[in-house]
Design brief:
Distance between the termini of chain A: 69 Å
Chains: A alpha/beta (about 375), B mainly alpha (about 700), C alpha/beta (about 260)
Number of domains of chain B: 2
CATH class of the largest domain in chain B: Mainly Alpha
Helix content of chain A: 40-55%
CATH class of the largest domain in chain A: Alpha Beta
Number of helices of chain A: 13
Oligomer: heterotrimer
Number of strands of chain B: 4
Number of domains of chain A: 2
Structural class of chain A: alpha/beta
Distance between the termini of chain B: 15 Å
Shape of chain B: globular
CATH topology of the largest domain in chain A: Rossmann fold
Largest interface: A-B, 77 and 91 residues
Number of helices of chain B: 29
Order of helices and strands of chain A: HHHEHEHEHEEHEHEHEHEHEHEEH
Radius of gyration of chain B: 29 Å
Radius of gyration of chain A: 24 Å
Amino acid sequence: MTLNKGEKTMRKFKGLLALLFAFTLLAAACGESNDATEEETDTEETDNSEAEQEEETDDEESSATEDGEGDEVDLTAGGDLTFHMVTHADDGPFWSVVKRGAEDAAASVGVELVWSPSNNDPEKQVQDIEAAISAGSGGIAASLASPDAVAPALAKAAEAGIPVYTLNSGVNQYEEIGAVTHIGQTETVAGEGAGQRFNDLGATKVLCAFQEQSNVGLEERCAGLEATFEGEVVSEFVGLDADQTAQQAAIGAILAEDDSIDAILGTGPVVAVSALSASQDAGKEITIGGFDITPDIISAIDAGDIAFTVDQQQYLQGYLPVILMFLQATNQNTAGGGLPILTGPGFVTPDNAAAVAELVSAGTR
Amino acid sequence: MSDTAVEASASGAADGAVDTAGTDERLTFRGPFQRLLTQPEIGALIGAIAIWGFFWAVTRPFGTAGGTANWLDVAATLGITAVVVAMLMIGGEFDLSAGAMTGATGIMLILLVKDIGELGGLGLNLFVAIPLSFIVALAIGWFNGTVVEKTSLPSFIVTLGTFFALKGVKLGFAKLLIDNIQVGRVDEGTGYEFWRRVFASTWARNDHQFEGRDVVYNQLLLLGVVLFVLAFFDMAFVHRRRSDTRWLPVVFGGAALAVAGYVLLHVRNGGDMFFGVLVGAGVIVAVGAWGKYRYEPRTSSDLIRPSVAIQTLIGGGVVSLVIAVITAIIFDAESSVSLREIIADDPLKAIYLTVLAAVAVALGALWASRSGHRTALVRTLSALAVIGVLIAILLLLSDETVREARIDFLTSLLLFTEQGIRAILFVGLVAIGLIAMAMGAVRAGATSIPVRSFVQSSIALAVVAIAFFVQNQSASRKFRAELFTVMLLLALVVFCWSIVSLLAAERSAPDAKADRIGRLTMTVGVVLIVLAVVVRLLFTTTAEIEDGVPPALFSVRIVWFIAVTAAAVWALARTKFGNWTFAVGGNKEAARQVGVPAARTKTQLFMVVSAGAWLVGMLLTFRLTTLQASTGDGNEFEYIIAAVVGGNLLTGGYGSALGAAIGALIMAMSGQGIPFAGWNSDWRFVFLGGILLLAVIANNFIRSRAEAVRK
Amino acid sequence: MSLLEVKNISKFYGNIIALKDITTSVEAGRVTCVLGDNGAGKSTFIKILSGVHQHDEGQFLVEGQPVRFTSPRDALDRGIATVYQDLAMVPLMSVWRNFWLGSEPTVGVWPFKVVDQTTAKGIAVDELGKMGIDIRDPDQPVGTLSGGERQSVAIARAAYFGAKVLILDEPTSALGVKQSGVVLRYIVEARRRGLGVIFITHNPNHAWPVGDRFMILNRGRSMGDFDKSELDLTELTRLMAGGAELAQLQDELAEAMESTD
């Protein structure tokens, strides 16, 4: 009995140690990638040992910041500011460039940035916006892929006196909710541009293949295409970017069914590459256009397999809001003059693909 | 825990016990602590408190009313479904369609009330449409249950089918009827205002000012804690046949002293140690006298010299605490110099760290060798060798060129800042020290109550010392005032406990009446504590507004969450239906044999899940007014995870609705705490995964401990 | 009059004879042991008595009236309760909840009808006490009880819910010596309380101390239905093992032993 008890106690002790260790590791892992939280506390609650117990400065990054821009920018002005970017992003290739832009901007002006992706869940976006409000955010930039659902929360933030910007999607709502401006591309205009391109390329029937079912922006791209394209347009949902095999199969099926399709507009970069593989599998000569930029689509354009991609230059969509919010907070600037700031469309064609490719591999396009 | 494990452990213990009927060891009395520990949700509860404390400490907004409103909001919808899914899991089934169902009911509602053309919706009044959608939801649940029962297929497969069907139906109807995958807007329906108030009204904290809030909060909280502690006493000690009223004046005297001290402390606006000591002394006198007044005095004074093991534990604990303080003093709280630089530039600190690590591993090896067969020496030496290699690697990595390669894990260790190392070591050592001492107390309690009381008093003293140290070292109000107070209170409670257990006999037999009174008092205490917190969360003061406190919006869905949880807990514990739920999940055949309508019970459980999903659908619809066709798809696993984190068995037959609710709180707190802390969101899932794993391990651990105690 | 009596009953599965001409009876306050090796037809016999199967020939009388059960419910309604080897117990549920499962007493009006826990726990503790098992904490999970105690909970439950005849299917087969002793004690206790018990086992050593009547099955046929006064333990063991066959086996074993010496 006594021996038994000893063993039991030991087991308990071992368990507790393991828990403790795991927690420490986790905390270390989480803390590693954030750099400026120590400075975040306000004057009343100046920084202290235990509050930051699990955090530490990523030495390399912060020193780089100071070296690079320390002279031009007033770091103390930005030190207290925390900006929130609440997007419907999924952290895929497109959004990681937006995030990169936002992070670069935050680093260059020395502000704290909280990036809240939501994987296309408006409920989470609303909650993240509310979290930003209650955290006393210095500025909120949000993408409005589901305007009806998310706009009221954003309006509340504007009401509470927080500078609000919309990015990527939300060009029709930003004024209504009291946002300073919208940074993005008008999807209809971009779609129209794609339609013109297809006219020039001599296509007769275009499949507008979209990869998200609940995204107004994608629908507008197809609608824009329909507006300017002189031939026939069919729009189909072909599966999420997460499963490219399924996308390929879906596009392949449509191609097999309808022989008259001679062009495909993918409303995203992934879906365009899927369309390319599908058309190659089907052994058909199909003109393919895409939206946005990834290394894959650029090399396909460079090789001449894909005709063009509509580039909305999403790095700007991350970079500009942070800079604008910073300037509004420190210098009382309001940009846009009541109009949206367009980041596109630009086109990447075989002519300029090689130049863009370099920037893509740097992660900024 | 599997069936066979129970049997094995039970019969193993039984062999030695049965022949002496009446003194059956397995039937020994379980004290209030042990009973508390056998609750399935206890692991989750401890985890929730730990996570709350963690984020409270490392972030600014998390502990505020705004932050609380935010994570409660996330927890509410997750929690409602987690609770109903937990009920179904206890009943031995899964429902993968629950996630899609939340969106489906909402979209159906909107399509029912929409009035755009012949196919665009029925233009129904919301008062008709809402009950109608509820009935359809129940019908889907009934369908799930009936198909599972009739075909005997795993519910996993059947509801997966329903999930895909619902997903398709949502999309299909949305496209067919309004040609849009965003289905809106419910606010065009008749009766919207009324239903919005039911499902989506909010309480804006900044619009509700209550100047006396803090007074009410403090008094309620104190009263609640006092009642809670007294209830625990009542359940743990033997009552006197007749109370010894001679001690009553002393009780009142002590209480008066404590109250006086407390009032003075407030009038003088804190800070004066003398009044604090007055409060402590008053409470201790009152509690001690209360023990003499109400409980049977101890007869035996079995002062036995504590064993070597106990001495080691306590000594080790004290040493650990001392090292913690030394570490905190040696290292600089403000310095963000990295470990790499410490190793390179500050040999004293580097040596100190190395020695600490070596001692830790040597002790670990020593301890491991005790339970194993190898000699201590071999293990210690090999452990030291491992440390040496580790240090060599660390030093190697601190070299600039090697670091370029970024071997991530070790590099991240090297990037710990000095303040980080200090904080982690301090917290870790304090925790180890206190745990070791607590273990010493528990082991001492098995042989000698006076020794245990002595150890408990030492723990209380140590906590006080640490509290003062923290207060002294810390610049933030959070730690200087709030944590300090909590630690002092904790020390006081431990000390009171040790005093009373020294004076009064601990109970070794059940006492139904005392338990009933104790449980009632405890409930009242908990209610008061909760009430205190609620008052503080819901109201603001003019002073706070002038300070520019950020707005906090409490959604009515939190009320729904609490209501659903309460109803589920009640139903599971008190009703026939609850009993049958556990039975069909635990052993369906057995339940059938004794006349439980297993099929009907399971079908009803599926309907309960649908009803819960419907409620969440309504909450979402009235919050967002426009739903996407994909709303809720894929969330079903989160519900199941929350239920599992809350201590529900995947195999059914065991669990708790309250646990699932706490599981949802844990997930919501982690999910919202990470952005509050300003951590990179890329790490979010690592943290969540860690939480999930930890929770399940902790649940298992606690349950096996509880089972062991029961034997 | 016997509580339960079978006269010359037979059961056929197609052209296989499962049981042939079985006769035995059980009176109130008596224990009838049905002994037989594996495959002797014990489970078929139980299934007929408990209403799972129906007999093809012969007479089945309950309190003197011929019956033919069509379901286990029928048997239960006539007061014949069967405690199966694999026990109708939910291991993770508490003792009192298991005791009452399916027949919980309730108080209050719908929708606030709740299980009357005080009554239920009290009765469960009392009834188990009557069986001689002291459950001080009725909230203990059944899974933590020993095998013998679980049997006793099942027996106490059957007795409380109006069983007149208790059929115990191999209650001791999975238990150790001490645990078997516990169960045998409960059988005696049930007999003392006036229940008729049919105790099915393959262990004559367990049957002998508690039985009043012994019926031995071998390959679907009865080797005889004896009162305790008519035979002794050695005879019972011999009959059970198939009489002459055992004698032969003993001879062979003796020879084998000699040759090894």
